[in-house]
Amino acid sequence: MKCDICIQYTGCRRYGGLACAACAAFFRRNVLQPKSLLCKNFDSCGIENFQILKCQSCRFKKCFQVGMKADRVKASSPKSSDDESDTVAAPIEFVIFAQALENLVEVCKGDSEGTLRYLKEETSEVLQKALARFTQTYSVTDLSRRTRSWSLILYRSNVKREELPLLFQLTVIHFSYIYYNFFDGSIRQKLGTVVESAFRFQELESICKEIISKISMSEI
Ligand SMILES: [Zn+2]
Ligand SMILES: [Zn+2]
What we know:
Distance between the termini: 24 Å
Helix content: 55-70%
Order of helices and strands: EEHHHHHHHHHHH
Structural class: mainly alpha
Shape: globular
Bound molecules: zinc ion
């Protein structure tokens, strides 16, 4: 079932409405940190051309219209749902992949401009920053829960080294959508046509959705 708000991603019951992870995070953020939102289109932004994703005011109103409740947000305390990550370990190469991705996401969190350039123009500056960060923080003994759960996802899906650039880009696309509210359908489309022939594009995309789901909503 599609999210009732954006009609883009698969949704499930969240805060009383049928919402995807991104719209739920958006709702949660705006309930917990209210700010005044203003629509430039007389409160009429619809789902055509992803308009509603670009207008925070209309998106927030739609959340209430589809049944989401502010008090549900306040009542729920976010917990990360890492189940297996404490007991099982992935082979070291997948741990390294996960750490590289973790560093990339952390760099993207602190550099919205660079992130958008990476997605739009495929510049490598955020990748370079992530690499530098990786070199500084690298450790095999002190793994975060997230690194462990990501490495297990990558291991289970048997992600190959040559698939990483695409997987990283896809993950950053989904991440930016949730974290920056940045959505540009053309970027994903472009990626889709460039790599149309790429081995298991769809599968990689669902892997990165699983990866993103491990970022707990409280971080966003
Ligand atoms: Zn949605
Ligand atoms: Zn609007």
